[in-house]
Amino acid sequence: MLRPMSRLRSSRPAGSRLAAALAALLLAGAAGCGGGGEPEPAPAPAGPPACTGDADCEPPLSCATGGVHETELEPGELGRCLPDGQIVGRGPPTWPWQPGGRPLAERLCVVQGLDWGASAEAGARRAVQRQLLEQAGVAVIRLDLPWAQIEPKPGAFDFSAADPMVDAALASGLSVLGILAYGVPWASTEPGADDKYPPDDPADYAAYARKVAEHFAGRIRDYELWNEPNVGWRFFKPQLNGDAARYGKLLVAASASVREACADCRLYSAGLSFHEQVVGGALEFTHDLLAAHPGALASVDAFGLHPYTRYPPQAGPEQDGEGERALGAMVADVREVLALHGASAGLPLAATELGWPVYEAVGEPEQAALLAREVLLGASLGLGPLCWYNLVDGEAHGSFPPESDFGLYRYGSDDPAGAASPKPARDAFAWLAALGDGAKPAGPSADAALHDPGAGRFALDFDGPQGRWTALWRTAGQAEVTLRGETRAAHDLSGKVVATASGGALHVPVGPAPIYLVP
Fold first, then answer.
1. What are phi and psi of 354, to 5 degrees?
2. For the domain that residue 501 is a member of, what is the CATH number?
3. Strand-strand pairing, 467-474 and 515-518
4. Distance from C-alpha of 365 to C-alpha of 361, rounded to nearest angstrom
């Protein structure tokens, strides 16, 4: 997630650079056409047909190991051709609701949003960014702490550019989730290695992680160990899909070193891009990680996940269809893979990146509605924090791919010489922050007329200091719902009152933009 230091912004997941990834895939395929040199596959045991990839399976079967789909098997490894019903992530969607936990407002996070650097220009921009973050009601900020900038030479640590950024976050009352990433060229002997190559020796990464934890002791408590290592072509080179076994070594080594420096720090495994799109998804990577290092996730306090839709993002978080998984299904699928390997059933899941850009059918109002639905669902499923990508649109807004259109604010809003221009998404985020202050998820409504995911109806309850409030929406269409005996007022996406009870009933227009029933 590194950008030029003058304007540091967080990079996006696998699908977000689809054209480049497709090119990488074609190159990888061309390079592999020569064959030879690979070990012979092991003899196949009796059972379903053996495979080394989906090409070996007759549709509708797919290649899997241990019930998990494999886009890329290890040399000599054999999978089995299985039907969808026997493959994790191919079954009907479920919604494993998890009431309680942290209040909603405390889960609200933004990716980046504060400039890196000690210059007067960076300081002026941070002053504006702090105002934007405060107005949005952000509680947590996810910040890059790049190894290549902090330790450009072995043992030569420099925090002069990171300190002002972290201090600005703390001065605004924000909790910091620091990303310990990525590599540094001096730690790799790969020809032409850049900062997205992992180190040859995990001890080098562990030493950097320890130094960061020591330096920010008392200021940063939460750390994420790398970012999207399953997006290998972008973040864990040189393999297209990354290297789960190699990442496991880094994870275990860095976890131990951070614990020694900060016993009460909370550690997150690297957020994984969920869907299979050009590269393998989170399920396959986690499966391979735990096969190589069964106890790796015992070293962290939370599992990082990036529950974006397939790229470019269009589908809502409730959708489960061709190539898409609903948010509830993503959570259930990850837990199923963890269970396959005997990993902790209670390991918390954190959405360290999520979001939708303004693009094609998703205009600014639709982006705001999708944000609210994703946050409400994510909190009700137990995810925390929920880190929206990102604060302000980038300079290339309006172009394809829509990498610069995820912001809560329009481009230029953090320019000290300009004026802030919030999108409806900012208002939706700020209303959730206000409404979610002290309010904990209470699960779905028991009224099937209001809540029936199979029919695209959702009604999620939250218990706050003023009593229970409920968020209502439908994934498609709009209908007026009459609630008899309802005394709460109906508020729209930004908190404006749109209906009050009259004659012992409340008439509420329910559609894709959530309506909130508030005491």
1. -160, 160
2. 2.60.40
3. antiparallel
4. 10
> CB neighbours of 396 closer than 8 A, spacing ≥ 6?
403, 404
Last residue of a domain, one of 383, 414, 435: 435
**Dist. CA 163–CA 381, nearest whole Å:** 34
Please report the sign of the dihedral spanned by the C-alpha atoms of residue 239, residue 241, residue 246, residue 247. positive
Cis peptide preceding 185, ω within 30 of 0: no
Q: Flag whether 63 is in a domain.
A: no
Residue with tokens 């995820």: 406
Distance CA 147, CA 159 (A): 10
Does 255 lie in the same domain as 106? yes
> What is the domain range of residue 255?
5-15+95-435
Domain check: are 431 and 505 in the same one? no
Please state the domain count of the chain.
2
Task: State pLDDT tens for residues 25-65.
Answer: 333 333 333 333 444 555 545 689 999 999 999 999 999 99
- Which of 435, 466, 484 is a domain's end point? 435
CA atoms of 132 and 409, how far apart (whole Å) = 8
Length of the chain equals: 519
Longest dimension (CA), the chain: 80
Alpha-carbon gap, residue 127 to 115, rounded angstroms = 10
Alpha carbon dihedral 246, 252, 257, 259, in 10-degree steps, equals 150
Task: Count CB atoms within 10 A of the CB of residue 440.
Answer: 18
Residue type, 181: A
Per-residue pLDDT of 261-304, as tens digits, reads 999 999 999 999 999 988 899 999 999 999 999 999 999 999 99
Same domain, 314 and 341: yes
* Residues 246, 296 share a domain: yes
* Alpha-carbon torsion angle 211, 213, 214, 215, nearest 10: 80
